[in-house]
Design a protein that fits this description.
The protein contains 16 helices and 9 strands. By secondary structure, it is an alpha/beta fold. The chain has 2 domains: 212 residues, P-loop containing nucleotide triphosphate hydrolases (Rossmann fold, 3-Layer(aba) Sandwich), CATH 3.40.50.300; 132 residues. It is globular and about 75 Å long.
């Protein structure tokens, strides 16, 4: 029996060859505990087609300065907070930063309304605790505690979804670089190379605002939405191609025309105005992020490959677009129908797209 392949390899595994090439050619100073220099980390994130060791593919498409500020922050004693609306690649960037700096992106705390303080500090193996009493062997370290002991980066996803008292458990870790263990009268001190990358967005419902004491301990980097339609098309095209290979979907032509249409629809509904600036449109309740565009197109490619003729067509993406736009079945449906009739219908070259979306709706 063969071992099944991993559906989603960790960044350090998927791009191991590129990381090895960068390390081999990296002659710049490296902060203590780092696998690569800050310059090489930035090259890994942004890519380099002319690197002497071979092509380094871009992992993040956006302003270089934003990545440089994020990397420089991790080289100091301040933690990094990646802030942005949903779909701006916060998680993607944090994973690749951890992979490049520490060679390990798995020290992860996923923030939810149910995240307990043990996820940030430590827990206990209660069978051993009852049998032997408090001891290091009975202690279960959190990803943050492991990162401190090993001098690696810890990732905290959706920080503002965690309850406020759990968030504040990070204050001592970030300010004193130590994690007290009162039950053992001990502490875990952070080894050189330790830091924290957190992600958050303040447009999501049900968030818990960060306390001023905790926010002061982060350097905040705001990740913008793609500046232009061309940039967003490039991001979507790259990620759709990567996901298609990862999911082993049958080969399907790129479908650049449909990618442009989906990106255009999402950008116009997000901004409240058509791309030519002539017509105002109402904005639905959903975020219509780049990530959602990628999801719509990946699903469309699967439909085209398995139930169509292998060519990505408007009918393959229409249902996904309607599902992404119409989050509120009452108000969003009215907004979508109005957009279809006043904008999409008037575009002569979009007639097939209009019919597919009308049928799907």
């Amino acid at each position: 029996m063969t071992t099944p392949t991993v559906l989603r390899p960790h960044a350090e595994d998927q791009y191991a060859d590129e990381l090895a090439v960068l390390a081999k050619h990296d002659d710049r100073p490296r902060p203590p505990g780092w696998r690569l220099s800050p310059w090489a980390v930035t090259t890994y994130i942004l890519g380099d087609a002319d690197h002497p060791g071979g092509v380094i593919t871009p992992k993040y498409i956006g302003p270089r300065r934003i990545v440089e500020v994020a990397v420089a922050t991790l080289a100091t004693d301040r933690a990094l907070l990646l802030l942005g609306v949903p779909g701006t690649a916060k998680t993607w960037l944090s994973e690749h930063l951890a992979a490049a700096v520490s060679g390990d992106s798995t020290l992860l705390v996923q923030g939810t309304a149910g995240t307990a303080e043990e996820a940030v500090r430590y827990g206990w193996n209660y069978a051993r605790l009852l049998a032997e009493g408090p001891s290091r062997e009975a202690l279960t370290p959190s990803p943050v505690m492991r990162a401190m002991a090993e001098g690696r980066l810890a990732r905290v996803e959706e920080l503002t979804r965690m309850p406020s008292d759990v968030q504040d458990a990070l204050i001592t870790v970030l300010s004193e670089k130590t994690l007290p263990i009162p039950e053992l009268n001990e502490e875990t001190q952070a080894a050189k190379g330790f830091n924290v990358i957190a992600t958050a967005n303040d447009r999501d419902r049900g968030v818990n605002e960060l306390s001023s004491a905790l926010r002061r301990r982060f350097n905040t980097v705001v990740l913008p939405v793609p500046a232009s339609a061309e940039e967003e098309v490039e991001i979507v095209s790259r990620r759709v191609a990567q996901l298609g290979r990862s999911l082993e979907l049958p080969e399907t032509p790129a479908g650049l025309e449909e990618i442009r249409r989906v990106v255009t629809v999402f950008r116009e509904l997000r901004s409240g105005v058509t791309s030519d600036g002539r017509t105002k449109v109402k904005t639905p309740s959903g975020t219509l992020s780049t990530a959602e565009a990628i999801s719509v197109l990946t699903s469309g490619i699967a439909l085209a490959a398995h139930f169509g003729d292998g060519v990505l067509r408007p009918s393959d993406v229409a249902a996904g677009i309607v599902g992404a736009v119409v989050q509120d079945p009452v108000s969003d449906r009215v907004i979508w129908q109005e957009y279809l009739e006043t904008v999409v219908r008037e575009r002569e070259e979009w007639r097939d797209f209009y019919r597919a979306c009308r049928d799907a709706g």
